[in-house]
Amino acid sequence: METPKHIVSAATVILNEKNELLLIKGPKRGWEMPGGQVEVGESLKEAAIRETKEECGLDIEVTRSAVCFRMSVNRFATHCS
């Protein structure tokens, strides 16, 4: 199997009726939105639903897409563009 050239991830922004944001506490990066890597053959929407179920036990419906960004990592620095 070839190493992927690009890692694609999906995350969810989940708000309740009080407009409170759901965050989970990750073991390494601290507080973050539920999400993770998109598996081969999976859409961003499917990945967001699956990752939220795996991490939070919640069944969600994706109502709209929010933000896409690219993060480049090299041996000197990490930056978003």
UniProtKB/TrEMBL annotation:
Gene3D superfamilies: Nucleoside Triphosphate Pyrophosphohydrolase. Its cofactor is Mg(2+). Belongs to the Nudix hydrolase family. InterPro entries: Nudix_hydrolase, NUDIX_hydrolase-like_dom_sf, NUDIX_hydrolase_CS, NUDIX_hydrolase_dom. Residues 4-81 form the Nudix hydrolase domain. One of its GO terms (molecular function) is hydrolase activity. This is NUDIX domain-containing protein. It comes from Thalassobacillus cyri. Keywords: Hydrolase. The keyword Hydrolase applies.
